[in-house]
């Protein structure tokens, strides 16, 4: 339950006023749909102003030039690519497919019943930590956590009588802020390892061959506990109290499960177990592939797997509870789910155009290389160098959302610079992962930022960019502070950041 306003300390009241100001300013911006349309137009204009400006990749000697979208060829691109930019907007298909499965489970009442079962069986004090931890670990499923956990976190908190947006924020913080942490290896580790090793070859080819996918594992595993702890504290002590009591709609019914609901959950549970067993078999057998597991056909189809894991139990529960009596009922329930996503679909059109234009013009690449050149010209070393590099990475993250895309640009520049200053490629990659993670949740250019806004607007139609940024800034600052302390301890003790991965080169 939210704290009494009189019990909130003066420092927190002051913090809340600052966050309220950020929210007010941010929400004065146009709606996300219109904002992305305006940003797309701004990119077009800027591309015309800076047309011909170029940078040279010091590693490959490749010249990257700003493309002018106001030219004849640029206008041809704008008109011919509009549909492809919309369809190719990365989160669109993943969100809609996943929400078909989650939506059916929600419409039939399975999620509602499961929620009530959880509320009566799990201590309330552990739920926030469990939600943040699940968000951190969700990077095993690449970006699926952005689609699955925030809406479930909101529903869970609503059922507990807490503000649903606090649950959404906790899950979003875990997924985005914890993207650089995990107890297991993920596809991100493999991608970054390849890019880091390739960049290190320009200085020391022999050393580059020793860089493995586990290069950041020790630090990443320790970070799981750190992010879970900080995320829990920020949610319960800052975000939740600031949001206060939710008055946007009826609270979830917390009455104990009826016999019919228990029967439906029992059959749905059996269906889930059988489906999960089938998925495990497919992952280890027919869909295992010949290469690494994280590159297998099964792993690349995780969005569809998640859809199935929600759809089958939802369907079974609906049949047992009589919510689904025939195929028409099923179609109606799925239609309701897609109708609830109509605003996001419209937003995806303008967001897709903006992302595509920004990529096509090469503006992000030019900004990144200029940032790297600035770092090299500072002459910094030690802590000043580390903090400057992290600051540049955080700034670049506001322009390029994809983690792998940024490192593709930055690694060939920063890894050699840091090696020449006696920092190992593995340590440089770690600094990058921290910097990337802490600003993911506050950059509107994160591909899944509009998705989170769409989820939040289910509970408050007035939620805008300012609302979400104001909710997430405390997490961003706290994660950065916690990681810097952990990093300082790591450096002072000289602990390897991963197996055979020293701090110094």
From TrEMBL:
Gene Ontology biological process terms, A to Z: p-aminobenzoyl-glutamate transmembrane transport
Keywords for this protein: Membrane, Transmembrane, Transmembrane helix
Pfam families membership: ABG_transport
A Gene Ontology molecular function term of the record: secondary active p-aminobenzoyl-glutamate transmembrane transporter activity
Name of this chain's protein: Aminobenzoyl-glutamate transport protein
PANTHER family: P-AMINOBENZOYL GLUTAMATE TRANSPORTER, P-AMINOBENZOYL-GLUTAMATE TRANSPORT PROTEIN
Transmembrane feature ranges: 33-53, 86-105, 126-149, 217-235, 267-286, 298-320, 341-359, 379-400, 407-425, 437-456, 468-495
Species of provenance: Salibacterium halotolerans
InterPro entries in alphabetical order: AbgT
Highest taxon listed in the record's lineage: Bacteria
């Amino acid at each position: 339950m939210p704290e009494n306003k009189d019990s909130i300390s003066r420092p927190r009241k002051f913090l809340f006023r600052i966050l309220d100001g950020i929210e007010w300013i941010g929400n004065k911006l146009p709606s996300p749909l219109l904002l992305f349309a305006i940003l797309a137009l701004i990119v077009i204009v800027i591309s015309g102003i800076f047309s011909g400006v170029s940078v040279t990749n010091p590693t490959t000697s490749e010249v990257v030039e700003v493309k002018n979208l106001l030219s004849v060829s640029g206008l041809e691109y704008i008109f011919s690519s509009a549909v492809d930019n919309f369809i190719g907007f990365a989160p669109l298909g993943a969100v809609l497919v996943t929400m078909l499965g989650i939506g059916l489970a929600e419409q039939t009442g399975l999620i509602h019943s499961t929620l009530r079962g959880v509320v009566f069986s799990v201590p309330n004090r552990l739920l926030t930590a469990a939600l943040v931890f699940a968000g951190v670990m969700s990077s095993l499923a690449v970006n699926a956590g952005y689609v699955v956990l925030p809406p479930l976190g909101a529903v869970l908190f609503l059922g507990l009588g807490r503000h649903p947006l606090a649950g959404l924020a906790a899950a979003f913080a875990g997924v985005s802020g914890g993207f650089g942490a995990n107890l297991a290896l993920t596809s991100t580790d493999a991608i970054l390892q390849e890019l880091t090793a390739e960049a290190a070859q320009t200085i020391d080819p022999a050393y580059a061959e020793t860089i493995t996918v586990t290069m950041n594992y020790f630090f990443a595993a320790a970070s799981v506990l750190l992010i879970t702890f900080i995320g829990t504290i920020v949610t319960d002590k800052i975000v939740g109290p600031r949001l206060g009591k939710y008055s946007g709609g009826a609270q979830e019914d917390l009455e104990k499960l009826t016999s019919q609901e228990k029967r439906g959950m029992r059959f749905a549970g059996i269906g889930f177990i059988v489906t999960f067993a089938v998925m495990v078999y497919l992952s280890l057998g027919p869909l295992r592939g010949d290469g690494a597991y994280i590159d297998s056909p099964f792993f690349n189809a995780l969005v569809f797997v998640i859809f199935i894991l929600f759809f089958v139990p939802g369907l079974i529960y609906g049949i047992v509870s009589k919510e689904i009596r025939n195929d028409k009922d099923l179609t109606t329930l799925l239609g309701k789910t897609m109708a609830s996503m109509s605003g996001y679909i419209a937003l995806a059109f303008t967001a897709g155009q903006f992302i595509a234009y920004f990529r096509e013009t090469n503006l992000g690449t030019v900004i990144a290389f200029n940032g790297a050149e600035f770092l090299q010209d500072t002459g910094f070393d030690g802590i000043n160098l580390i903090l400057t590099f992290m600051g540049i990475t955080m700034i670049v993250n506001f322009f390029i959302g994809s983690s792998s895309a940024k490192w593709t640009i930055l690694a060939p520049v920063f890894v050699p610079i840091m090696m020449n200053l006696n920092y190992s490629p593995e340590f440089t990659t770690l600094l990058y992962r921290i910097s990337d993670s802490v600003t993911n949740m506050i950059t509107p250019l994160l591909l899944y930022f509009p998705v989170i806004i769409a989820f939040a607007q289910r509970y408050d139609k007035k939620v805008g960019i300012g609302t979400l940024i104001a909710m997430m800034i405390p997490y961003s600052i706290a994660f950065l502070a916690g990681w810097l302390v952990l990093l300082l301890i790591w450096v002072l003790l000289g602990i390897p950041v991963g197996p055979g991965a020293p701090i110094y080169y």
